[in-house]
Structures are given as structure tokens and as C-alpha cells.
Write a structure and sequence with these properties.
- This protein is 78% helix and 0% strand.
- With 78 residues, the protein is mostly helical.
- The radius of gyration is 17 Å and the shape is elongated.
Length: 78
């Protein structure tokens, strides 16, 4: 059955972005605990901005790679 629209690629990219963001968040939190850093309001805002940017960039990157791979695959009819 032929697929159109890239729904599977979009969902895969979404999950990949969440995985990357979650892992980076755990690393940042672990570093903060080990270094004994108190998270003030500015640090929380910066961390939120960084994690949001990472999620967007990784999701877009994975999606574009999956779409490009699907177009160059022999036998693809899209």
C-alpha cells in the first residue's frame, strides 16, 4: 500500500526530537545536581529555551533527512 503525505516520517521525527531533548535535559539536570548549581528563574528560562531549540532543530533535521531518503530511494513513487 502506497503512503502519501509523510505522516510516518513526521511522527518518527517528532519522537526523535523528544528523545534528543529528553536526553539533553537529563544530562543538564545531572550536571546541575553534581555541580551543586541552584536553578534560579533565569537559568530555568535559558534551559527551557535551549531545550526548545534543540527539539525544533532535531525534529526538523530528522524529518528532512527521512523525506530526502524517501525521494531518492529506487522504486519510490512519490
Amino acid at each position: 500500500m502506497a503512503r502519501r503525505g509523510g505522516e510516518l516520517e513526521a511522527f518518527t521525527a517528532f519522537l526523535g526530537g523528544l528523545l534528543a531533548t529528553g536526553l539533553l535535559g537529563l544530562v543538564m539536570a545531572g550536571f546541575g545536581v553534581l555541580a551543586g548549581i541552584h536553578a534560579g528563574p533565569l537559568l530555568v528560562k535559558v534551559a527551557t529555551a535551549v531545550l526548545g531549540a534543540v527539539w525544533v532543530v532535531v525534529t526538523l533535521g530528522i524529518y528532512l533527512r527521512l523525506i530526502a531518503r524517501g525521494r531518492t530511494r529506487p522504486g519510490s513513487r512519490s
